[in-house]
Amino acid sequence: MKFTLSRLFPCIFIGLFLAIGCSLFLVQPISFASAGPAVYNARDRIHPIFARNGLVVSQEALASEVGLSILKQGGNAVDAAVAVGFALAVTLPQAGNLGGGGFMVVYDTMRRTSEALDFRETAPAAANRDHYLNQQGAVDEQRIRYSHQAAGVPGTVAGLALAHQRHGRLPWRHLLEPAIRLADQGFPVSTELAQSLREARPRMEYWPASLQVFFKADGAAYQPGDTLVQKDLATSLRRIAIQGSKAFYEGEIARKLVADMQAHKGLITRDDLKNYRAVVREPVRGRYRGYEIVSMPPPSSGGVHLIQILNILEAWPLAELGSQSAATIHRLAEAMKRAYADRSEYLGDPDFVNVPIAGLTAKAYARELAAQIDLEQTQPATAIKPGQPQRYESEQTTHYSVVDRQGNAAAVTYTLNFGYGSGIVAAGTGILLNNEMDDFAAKPGVPNAYGLIGGDANAVGPGKRPLSSMTPTLVFKDGQPVLVTGSPGGSRIITTVLQILLNVIDHQMNIAEATVAPRVHHQWLPDELRIEEGLSPDTIRVLEEMGHTVVIKDAMGSTQSIVRGPGGWYGFSDTRRPGGLAAGY
Length: 585
Ligand code: DON
Known about the structure:
Layout: H1 5-26, E1 49-51, E2 55-58, H2 61-72, H3 77-91, E3 101-108, E4 113-119, H4 141-146, H5 156-167, H6 172-185, E5 187-188, H7 191-204, H8 208-214, E6 227-228, H9 231-243, H10 246-249, H11 252-263, H12 270-275, E7 279-281, E8 284-288, E9 291-295, H13 302-313, H14 318-321, H15 326-346, H16 357-360, H17 363-372, E10 397-403, E11 409-415, E12 425-426, E13 431-432, E14 473-477, E15 480-485, H18 493-505, H19 511-516, E16 520-521, E17 529-531, H20 537-545, E18 550-552, E19 560-565, E20 568-573, E21 581-584
Parallel strand pairs: 17-18
Antiparallel strand pairs: 1-20, 2-10, 2-21, 3-4, 3-11, 4-7, 5-6, 8-9, 9-14, 10-11, 12-13, 14-15, 15-19, 16-17, 19-20
Helix pairs in contact: 2-3, 3-5, 3-6, 6-9, 13-15, 13-17, 13-18, 15-20
The protein binds 6-diazenyl-5-OXO-L-norleucine.
6-diazenyl-5-OXO-L-norleucine binds next to loops.
C-alpha cells in the first residue's frame, strides 16, 4: 500500500483531532511548575497530550485506557505495561500478542536502576542452520513465514510475568481482568481493524482456526462497529490469570499449542515450551550531547546501532544544519549505512555469539567511521550481493510507553513479526503464532522480509533468539528519565527511534512535532535512501546530486512516546497509524 501525501495528511489531521479531543477529556490543565530535568520544547505548533501524574501511549485506544485505569488504581508503570500488553493481544491482534515476543526496558525509580527484559522468541530445538532451505538450497519463504514452522517459541507471557514478578505492585490476576473482559464480551471493531483483517484474509484462509476467530460464522468480514468476541482467547487469558505463565508453558495452553504443531508439522514441542525463559539483561548505554541513552541490548540490534549512529552524528552540529536539510539527511544516511553494515556481520543472540557491544558503541570507533564519511558525496554500499528485498510492507509490531507518578517508566516493543504473524491461530487457544524465524539469516547473504542480510552470527540454531531491530528506549538527563519511546517498522525501527531522539534533542521539537516530522532511512543494503512523503523536492534534488538514490515509500514506524516537561509528562501517539491514544491523568 503506497502512503501518498493525500493519505498522510488526513491521518495527521485525524490524529491531531483525536489528540486535541482526548486532551479535553483525559488531561488536566497544564501547570508550569518546574519538575526537574525535562526535554519539553515549548514551540507552539502541534500539541502533545499533557498529564500531570501518569501517561500511557499505545497504538490502540482501548488498550491505552486499560493502562490508564491501572495507573489510577495505584498500579505502577510496569503494572500498567503488563495490563496493556495483555489488552493489546485482544484489541490489536495484528501485533499485540501472546504468541509472539518482545522487549521491555524499565526504569525503577526507587532502585534508580534500569533493566532490559528480553522475551524474544527462541528457535525450537529441532530448528538447525539449514532447516529453512529447500532442495535447491534456496530459502523456503513459505515455510519460514507462513507455516507452523515459522513460529519461534513465544516469549510474551513469560516476559510479562517476569516484569510483574520483578516490579509489579497490583495482583497479577487483576492485570489480566481487562483483557479477559475485552476478549469475552468483545469490543467494537475499528475501521482500521476491519480493513486490516480484510487484507489478512488470503493468509488466514488456509487455517480454519484463524477464520473462526477473525471472520463471522458465515465467513463474512467484520465491519466497523461490529463486536469482535474471542472466547478461546478469553479462556487462555483466564488460565494465565489463574495459573500464571505455567498455564502457557506447561498447562492446557501448552498442550493445545503442541497438538496444533503436531497436526501441521510444526517444530515446537512440550520441552521447547517448558524450557523457555525470559531473561533480564543489562541495557546498552550511550551518551549523546549530555543525555544518557538506555536501550535494548542484543538479541536486539536496536540499542547498539541507535547508540552507534548517535555517536557518529555527534561529530556534526545537526541543530545548525537543520532538521530536514540535505546536509543533515546526508550525514544520517551515511552513518546509518555503516551501522547496518556492521549489523549484518556482528549482531546475533549474545548467548550464542560474541557481540562486540563495547566496540560498536565506542566513541573512538564512531570517530573513525565519521572520519570516513565524505560530506559532499555519498559512498555506495559495498559489493555484497543482497538479492532483491521483499516487497512485503505489512508493518505490525507495536510499541507502547508508560510512566507513572513516581517516575517509573516502561518502554515495551513486542511483535508477531508480520501483521497477524504467520496468520495461524493455534486451534482452541485463540492465539496467533508469530513468524519470527524469518528474522534469522536463513541463508548467509539472502535478505529477509525487511531486506536485512546476515551471516553466521544470526544463523538459525536450536534455542537461539533471532536478531531483532526493536528499540524500546529511555533517555535520561541528570539521572531522570526525560524521554520514553519506541516503534514498530522492521528494519526501520532503529532509524525511526533515532530520529525521535534527534528531533527532540538537536532540533528542539516537542514530542508531537518530533513524531510527525518526515522520516528517512538507509540500511546499507539495498543501497537506497528511503524517505517519506513530505521532504521538499529541492532537498531531494540536492541529495540526488550528492549521489543518493532517493526513493519515496510508505510511511515508516509508529512511535508511541512520552517526554518530561513543565509540570508533568507529554505524550504523542504517531498519526501514521490511526487508532492510537495518549491517555493520562
Ligand atoms: O524483531 C524485529 O526486528 C522484527 N520482527 C520486527 C517486525 C516489525 O517491526 C514489523 N512491523 N512493523
